[in-house]
């Protein structure tokens, strides 16, 4: 028997919420409120903990979200918008350093190191990924030697 996913917001409320975001006055007020709240470290920490708890507690939700993002990224327009947003984010002062520090901190955690190690081992076992990586490594080495 298939279990229906939990709906946290009814469809009609979801549509109403999306419609309200189109109103420039409402949108500006919400953005201003969110920015003020997210400027507080305690609020960011609480939100982060809640998000982590939710994702860790519901593996099916993680799988659904993963599939949804993969489907979205097949759309060239979505991919372009996401790329532009990433470039803009990295252009903000201190953003690269903040991300670098977050990655360093994550890499110190044994569970993260183990998961990444297993992912790399699996990737090297995939003949397509292996060939692509080797080709990239050869190109990079050739550039360093000034051959390309």
Please give a structural write-up.
This protein is mostly helical and 148 residues long. Among the domains are: 21-57; 119-148, no CATH class. The chain has helices spanning 11-21, 24-38, 41-57, 59-73, 76-91, 95-107, 110-125, 127-145. The protein starts with 10 loop residues before the first helix and ends with a helix. The model has no long low-confidence stretch (mean pLDDT 89).
Contiguous helical run count: 8
N-to-C order of helices and strands = HHHHHHHH
Mean pLDDT, nearest integer? 89
Structural classification: mainly alpha
The backbone outline, from C-alpha atoms, is extended
Which bin fits the share of residues in helices? over 70%
Percent of residues in beta strands?
Answer: under 5%
**Biggest sheet details:** none
Spatial separation of the terminal alpha carbons: 58 Å
Low-pLDDT residue spans = none
What is Rg?
21 Å
How many beta-strand runs? 0
Please name the defining characteristics of this protein.
single chain; mainly alpha; 0% strand; 148 residues
């Amino acid at each position: 028997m298939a279990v229906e996913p939990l709906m946290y917001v009814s469809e009609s409320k979801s549509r109403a919420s999306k419609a309200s975001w189109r109103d420039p006055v409402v949108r500006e007020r919400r953005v201003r409120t969110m920015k003020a709240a997210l400027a507080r470290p305690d609020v960011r920490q609480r939100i982060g903990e809640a998000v982590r708890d939710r994702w860790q507690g519901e593996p099916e939700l993680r799988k659904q979200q993963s599939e949804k993002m993969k489907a979205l990224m097949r759309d060239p327009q979505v991919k372009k918008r996401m790329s532009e947003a990433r470039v803009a984010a990295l252009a903000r002062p201190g953003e690269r350093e903040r991300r670098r520090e977050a990655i360093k901190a994550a890499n110190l955690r044994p569970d993260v190191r183990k998961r990444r190690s297993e992912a790399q081992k699996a990737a090297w076992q995939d003949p397509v990924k292996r060939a692509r990586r080797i080709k990239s490594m050869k190109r990079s080495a050739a550039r360093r030697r000034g051959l390309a």
